[in-house]
Specification:
Layout: E1 3-9, H1 13-24, E2 31-38, E3 41-48, H2 51-57, E4 68-74, E5 89-90, E6 96-101, H3 107-116, H4 127-141, H5 144-154, E7 159-165, E8 172-177, E9 182-185, E10 189-193, E11 205-208, E12 214-218, E13 221-225, E14 231-232, E15 237-238, H6 254-260, H7 262-270, E16 274-275, E17 278-279, H8 288-293, E18 296-301, H9 303-320, E19 324-328, H10 329-332, E20 343-349, H11 355-366, E21 370-375, H12 381-385, E22 388-391, H13 404-424, H14 429-450, H15 453-463, E23 468-473, H16 476-492, E24 495-500, E25 517-522, H17 528-539, E26 544-550, E27 562-566, H18 575-592
Parallel strand pairs: 18-19, 18-20, 20-21, 21-22, 23-24, 23-25, 25-26, 26-27
Antiparallel strand pairs: 1-4, 1-10, 2-3, 2-4, 5-6, 6-7, 7-8, 8-12, 9-10, 9-11, 11-15, 12-13, 13-14, 16-17
Bound molecules: 5-amino-5-deoxy-1-O-phosphono-D-mannitol.
Length: about 600
């Protein structure tokens, strides 16, 4: 989704903005632009296409002068990706420039009002309305802070904005509502950005802005105001990621680096929380009494985070005997879910900024549920608004296709399930101890599995030209199949579906033809014979069978064309290992096909619009 960066400092702004936008490229975009204050003039450049087009247009920023500026990568919502629709949008007089992430829901009413006042519009975007609205209110009051307060009162929808005013050549303005915006406090440089990655080169001191907070940034000063124009103080957070955590570090793709980082990420997520044979969860305030009071658990998330929830349903029901429903966030609040104070809602999100998940969480809170969030990005909206937060210490995840965030989210689900079982007394102490031990072994088991990556690479080289692929599994393997299928289709553009093994013959089996690839997950010990029968059914209709099984279990070898073996762990934890060959398979298939792996077409890393 759109990325914003703004800079006020002692250096030329344009190269800083271009570098910052490069760090935000991973979010997904189709055009880019920058605007810089040069004395009392605004200079700007924008273009459809990748950042390189803008780099060439501005000769790496050399043609746009000034030390205060704003930049933007646009993921089109209103109007096609084009030069004219790219941000920044400049007001009719040329005195104001605006970059925007989000959607202005009442832009048509505002546009009609502004057209009536004689303003003209060049683009099809909702954002251009903001540029003219700023000009309109500034014309009325002549004060930029008051103008900011007024536009916040007028705009409906979601926005993170960076705004230049030519009358104020030493500063720029920013504000957010329901779209992410972080403030970075450096030495001789203050910045805003959609996330911390563009600012790590300048500072690790950041402030997370709350809704409708207005910031005025100068090179040597930052002031934050509320919607009434009253000055407010913000808490400063020091980020412990360094620049290298968000770099490729010699790998060809972020996705591959992140796949390979999973043992360390898992270790970081688990180790501090397993102390002397006990699970110690930070920022977790659910007592035994409160837990006993929950009659239902909802897990709500999108995409891969939803797939973690699908595993979580099996795991939490097994360990707590509390009924669990897993919901797609964009559907949840529109189906009038039954929520009250006896409901625990677990929301899962890597970014903590997914618009649908935020909206579902707010609906859950409004109706009285307790919200526990599993989040990767420190200080994100979900992390700040939830009642309890458990962070996945995966570090920055840059590739659009999630891997290490998925694994660490899963690890947190396990920790949570075991903690709940301990509080509720639903699992014998020895069984819990066995799970703690197995959890601690997972990073090392992942390590040994990843060392066999060439085997998967070879399988991918034989199978990458398939047009349609099915993933099947039962129970936890079905939940993992959902993720394997999504991973493959999002980066390789091969059509793929995941099915519960027993469900195929209720319709989907009609799609199986000679040579159709069916990836069969058979790692759930109790159901291997059942999934083997389902595999036989598709094999009899011509399918090519690639199986994933647990090392030492030879049953699938009797039917499959090829088997990849994963190390054995306890059944509830097995998804942590089963998912790895699927991530690798997707990666190698996409690589064989020459796809844009880290930034697949049409996709965004952080989906900040509903
Ligand atoms: O940041 P979130 O975890 O809330 O994001 C949810 C989905 O957009 C995300 O998992 C998406 O499905 C990934 N691209 C999958 O790899």
């Amino acid at each position: 989704m759109c990325g914003i960066v703004g800079y006020a400092g002692v250096n030329e702004a344009a190269p800083v903005l271009l570098k910052g936008l490069e760090k935000l490229e991973y979010r997904g975009y189709d055009s880019a632009g920058i605007a810089v204050l040069n004395g009392r003039e605004i200079e700007f450049a924008k273009a459809a296409g990748k950042l390189q087009v803008l780099r060439d247009l501005t000769e790496e920023g050399a043609t746009v002068h000034g030390r205060i500026g704003i930049g933007h990568t646009r993921w089109a919502t209103h109007g096609e990706p084009s030069d004219v629709n790219a941000h920044p949008h400049v007001s009719n007089s040329g005195r104001f420039a605006v970059v925007h992430n989000g959607i202005i829901e009442n832009y048509q009413q505002l546009k009609a009002m502004l057209l009536g006042k004689g303003f003209t519009f060049l683009s099809q975007t909702d954002t251009e309305v903001i540029a003219q609205l700023v000009e309109y209110y500034y014309g009325k009051c002549g004060d930029m802070l008051e103008t900011m307060c007024r536009i916040v009162g007028k705009l409906e929808g979601s926005y993170a904005l960076g705004i230049l005013c030519a009358d104020q050549p030493d500063r720029f303005y920013a504000v957010r509502k329901d779209s992410p915006l972080v403030l970075g406090l450096g030495e001789g440089a203050n910045l805003v950005a959609s996330d911390v990655s563009p600012m790590l080169a300048y500072t690790q001191r950041v402030c997370y802005l709350d809704d409708q907070e207005i910031v005025v940034l100068q090179a040597d000063n930052v002031a934050v105001y509320d919607i009434n124009g009253e000055r407010i103080e913000k808490e400063v957070t020091v980020i412990d990621w360094d620049v290298s955590a968000a770099e490729k570090g010699g790998y060809e793709h972020f996705m591959f680096k992140e796949i390979m980082e999973q043992p360390q990420s898992l270790q970081k997520t688990i180790s501090p929380r397993l102390q002397d044979g006990e699970i110690v969860l930070d920022d977790f305030h659910i007592t035994r009494e409160r837990l006993e009071d929950f009659r239902k658990i909802y897990i709500v998330a999108c995409g891969s985070s939803y797939h973690v929830g699908a595993v979580g349903k099996y795991v939490l029901e097994q360990t707590t005997r509390i009924p669990v429903e897993v919901d797609i966030a964009s559907e949840f609040r529109y189906r009038n879910p039954i929520i009250d104070e006896h409901t625990l809602m677990i929301v899962i999100s890597q970014s903590g900024e997914t618009a649908d998940t935020i909206a579902a969480m707010r609906e859950g809170k409004r109706q009285g549920s307790h919200v526990l969030a599993i989040v990767n990005v420190l200080g994100s909206t979900i992390a700040r608004e939830a009642d309890d937060v458990l962070y996945t210490w995966a570090g920055p995840e840059i590739a659009v296709a999630t891997t290490k965030a998925y694994s660490t989210q899963l690890a947190v689900i396990y920790l949570l399930a075991l903690k709940f079982a301990e509080l509720l007394g639903t699992m014998a102490a020895e069984e819990r101890a066995a799970h703690y031990q197995a959890l601690q072994q997972l990073p090392q088991q992942m390590e040994s599995l990843l060392a066999e990556k060439e085997e998967i690479q070879f399988m991918a080289s034989q199978l990458y030209n398939k047009h349609s692929i099915f993933f099947i599994g039962r129970n936890l393997d079905y939940a993992v199949a959902l993720e394997g299928s999504l991973k493959l289709k999002e980066i390789s553009y091969i059509h793929s579906e995941a099915y519960a093994g027993g469900e195929l013959k209720h319709g989907t089996i009609s799609l199986i033809e000679q040579g159709t690839l069916v990836v069969t997950l058979a790692t759930h010990d109790a159901l291997v014979d059942k999934i083997k029968s389902n595999a036989e059914e598709v094999k009899a209709r011509g399918a090519y069978l690639l199986a994933v099984a647990v090392r030492g279990d030879e049953r699938m070898a009797e039917v499959a064309d090829a088997v990849f073996y994963v190390p054995r762990t306890l059944p509830l934890l097995q998804p942590s290992l089963t998912v790895l060959p699927l991530q690798l398979f997707s990666y190698y298939v996409a690589s064989q096909k020459g796809c844009s792996i880290d930034q697949p077409k049409n996709l965004a890393k952080s989906v900040t619009v509903e």
